[in-house]
Amino acid sequence: MKISIFTLTLSLFLLSCKPELNTKESNSNKGVEIDQGKKNQYNLKVKDSLVEKFFPSTRETTKNDTLIQNLGIRISIVQKPLESYIINEFISDGVKNIHKYRDFENHLVIEKGSKKIIDTIFRKENFLENTGHEFQEISIFHGYWFREAKDNQVEIFGMLSKPETDYSFAFQHFFNLKSGIFEIKKIN
């Protein structure tokens, strides 16, 4: 009786284990193996002893719309990838890795009814006086998000950052709906 219960339990355990198909691509020159699933995930380009990855892997535009009913406004932020990259190169296990981080521009449109209050595009260069040239050369425009709207003022949170580090410039972008003036406050 104990043997049959043990056999049944063992059989159920083995049947419940899902075997994973792990396709690997082998580089004949250097013996480099790349997991095929990861290759597709990061848009890898493999040549001899070189691995090139793009972050994000595809060039996709994202759009975020927010409606603020009590103020009667619509806020639209479109994040569009640029053809510029910040490149991080390193060697791991004899393989040169090149990570290319896409930079972005952010298109901000604020409408009240059918009237556009503001229609502008922000790139990291717009924040040069806040960050300096050195930081501009190593950073990407990581994100630009609506935070809140109150008292005829829209607050947007933004961040420029150096990829793979916590080195960043985070800021609050305030837009006064009446005066049409932007104000930047750095977040410490």
Walkthrough of the structure:
The chain is an alpha+beta fold. It contains four helices and twelve strands. The chain has one domain (24-186): Lipocalin (Beta Barrel). The chain has helices at residues 2-16, 36-41, 128-131, 133-138; strands at residues 24-27, 32-35, 45-47, 50-55, 62-68, 73-92, 95-112, 115-122, 140-150, 153-161, 168-176, 182-186. A hairpin with a 6-residue loop joins strand 10 and strand 11. The longest helix is centred in the N-terminal third of the chain and has 15 residues, at 2-16. The model is unreliable at 12-34 (pLDDT under 50).
Summarize the structure.
The chain is α+β, with helices and mostly antiparallel strands and 188 residues long. It has helices spanning 2-16, 36-41, 128-131, 133-138; strands at 24-27, 32-35, 45-47, 50-55, 62-68, 73-92, 95-112, 115-122, 140-150, 153-161, 168-176, 182-186.
